[in-house]
């Protein structure tokens, strides 16, 4: 199987990155649905989609409105949206309020409590974990595909609470919004800075790190000061939109 990085920026899109959205096309799994959500259409391989939200900030949900086209144009038969209750309530009551978007939500809502494990129809288990340092909180996920452990963590500071949750992951997909010289901003906004992520990747003994959800105000090839990371933990890639990770390789 492969993981498609459809959107790899935070906050707002820029000319290089749409906001965050990951997809595993073979099983119709989507993690977050930012402005890159429209790219789900070109990667579709299934008639059903299971979408998991980390939280309901706009850069993670605003692509959801595009999904109303998928049953009509692409023949998608069922979409399920998973998240903690207040996140799903916000999507239904705010994003899909009549004043903002006149078409009703095209998916079923499935609420869970952070910490739960959700079993999908294909037998894949998605484990969740509550993150508390980002305003309003966020949810981390981990699951296994092709015998590889994958963890997805975004919109949080590295606070030590979820080290065990990501320990031993073959692939850790983690946000890094700020380089170390913006440390104070990272704390204020509840985001990760580079050297804290380096320590996490090393301490948790992950096999590979892919950095996503980077600052859209910086369009450089290296928006996070990569040296501070590779000095401590070398096996890292900064994702761009269009990155594909083939788990079989
Ligand atoms: Zn975000
Ligand atoms: Zn956020």
TrEMBL record:
Can you give the residue ranges of the Metallo-beta-lactamase domain? 49-213
Q: What molecular functions are annotated in GO for this chain?
A: 3'-tRNA processing endoribonuclease activity
- Residue stretches spanning the membrane: none
Keywords (A to Z) from UniProt? Hydrolase
Under the heading InterPro entries, the entry gives: Metallo-B-lactamas, RibonucZ/Hydroxyglut_hydro
UniProt enzyme class: hydrolase
Enzyme Commission identifier(s): 3.1.-.-
PANTHER family (UniProt xref): ZINC PHOSPHODIESTERASE ELAC PROTEIN 1
Identification of the protein by name: Ribonuclease BN
Could you tell me which species this protein originates from?
Thalassoglobus neptunius
